[in-house]
Amino acid sequence: ELARQQPSPTFQARPSRIGPNERINSINSFITEQ
């Protein structure tokens, strides 16, 4: 299911200064808001 809900390329192109955990939280929030 999650494989179908991959964030868009634009969403993935975020500043690299965001840590791994921050990215995971952002992705989870992004998916939840869909």
Top keywords for this entry?
single chain, 34 residues, mainly alpha, 2 helices, elongated
Descriptive account of the structure:
- The chain is mainly alpha-helical and 34 residues long.
- It contains 2 helices and no strands.
- The protein is elongated, with a radius of gyration of 10 Å.
- The two termini are 13 Å apart.
- The model has no long low-confidence stretch (mean pLDDT 66).
CA radius of gyration: 10 Å
Average residue pLDDT: 66
Amount of helix: 40-55%
Most strands sheet: none
Based on Cα principal axes, name the global outline: elongated
Question: How far apart, in Å, are the first and last alpha carbons?
Answer: 13 Å
Fraction in beta strands: under 5%
Number of helices: 2
Would you identify the regions where 5 or more consecutive residues have pLDDT less than 50? none
What is the string of helix and strand elements?
HH
Structural class: mainly alpha
Number of strands: 0
List the SSEs and their pairings.
Elements: H1 9-12, H2 20-33
What would you say about this model in short?
The protein is mainly alpha-helical and 34 residues long. Helix content is 53%, strand content 0%.
